[in-house]
Amino acid sequence: MGKKLVIEPVTRVEGHARVTIVLEDSGKVKDARVQVIEMRGFEKFCVGRPVEEMPRIVTAICGICPWAHHMASSKAADALFGVQIPETARKIREAAYSAHIVHSHLLHFFFLAAPDFLSDPGADFGVRNIIGLAARNPDLVRRAVRARHMAQEMTGIIAANATRPDAVVPGGFSRAMSEEQRQELLPMAREVLEFTRFAVDFAKEKVFIPQWPQVKEEPSLATGFLGTVDANGGLNFYDGRLRLKQPGDNGNYKEFEPKDYRDFIEEQAMDWSYVKFPFVRSAGRLSLDPEDPVGVYRSNSLARINVCDHITTPLAQQELLEFRETVGRLPQHSFLQHWARLIEALYNSERAVELLSDPEITNPNVRETVTPVAGRGVGVVEAPRGALIHDYEADDKGFITKVNLIVATTHNSAAMNIDVLMAARRILDGGRSDEEALNKVEMVIRAYDPCFSCSTHVLGGALPVKLQFRDTRGQVIRTIQN
């Protein structure tokens, strides 16, 4: 009959998930699935709301990345209303968003991922965490906490609310930035930049350069990559065109406007998870077979680093060149997502300093008037975990009639499942199930920095729900399933 290994909950990630690994009698891994076991349903209960309320509502999707949803929603509303926001509003939006990206990337690397790399993966879980890391290296953790907090504070100064922002509105920004605020923010941005420079150097010395020779010998999943680039092919988080590269394209790619994403991406639901599974439409189908991963792509830090031609800020561009010299032009190994993530933190730190150094960011012209119309609007930003798509349709009174969200983690659903299966077969074949082995499987998931709170949605039809009633001994006595 074989047996199942269940990792529940997956630790040091945002949201809730479990990994179910099916073993044959011989101990060989037959299958593995990352099952997301929470549901949001924002696409349904936002129907009927005024379009202008959407940027405020969707920040409640997640407490980690509310700014990503706030920004994508506002851009979708801008597009639906057909409004071009003032240049100053764009600069303020991007400055706040750059700070948010830094906060999220530092949170992931130092709080969630670093305990695996800066301690033995087989160490007791009681010390293999941020508290244990702080005990071993208090100065490092203190500096990381300060920089992350400062980046978060910057978003609060700009928008008056860091965790539930409502300052980005259809047509621009709800308030101008004062010169006093700019002068307060600029030294904070410079301090954060200094830390991200240190963080990249620290991680290269302690983690990436020493571990890469061994890691690159492991088999890695070959997928396509999706990310946003500006008009010159440069890395961009706030605005641009989506670029899709697939394995074997030999440098070729498809590039398209965000509003046309349906022509290139198709969505599929599975009966064993609340996460949708997007795939490349031209592939015609989705396969989760590691030997034949048809239609699979990734959208995350490594994807963005791979699809862009260059980075527009000097320090991050220098790091990109070193990264490519070390690991190649289109590397696939998921371990490299951590390295790419810190390069992106450096870029966003530099970008925040650039924007806040511009006195024009205090121009009081920050908002255009909008008028309710019937139509469709698509807004896309690069969330910390990948491309975030908000797609709204509204009636002639400006009320939402349809919502579709493709959240960053969702893009990576297929790849994450295949990656976990490949890792399980490499690590657990033979029946091994000790703490170190299971943690190494979890490390594959953490490389994606998934936000399962964001990514759980229903795709059409009825939501699959199963209720189990257990007696006092834990035995299932009744099951109800729709």
From TrEMBL:
Reported cofactor(s): Ni(2+); Fe cation
Residues where Ni(2+) binds: C65, C451
GO molecular function, one term: oxidoreductase activity
Alphabetized UniProt keyword annotations: Iron, Magnesium, Metal-binding, Nickel, Oxidoreductase
Chain residues that bind Mg(2+): E43, C62, L405, H457
Domain of life: Bacteria
Pfam families: NiFeSe_Hases
InterPro entries the UniProt entry points to: Ni-dep_hyd_lsu, NiFe-Hase_large
Family annotation (SUPFAM superfamilies): HydB/Nqo4-like
Protein family membership: Belongs to the [NiFe]/[NiFeSe] hydrogenase large subunit family.
Protein's UniProt name: Nickel-dependent hydrogenase, large subunit
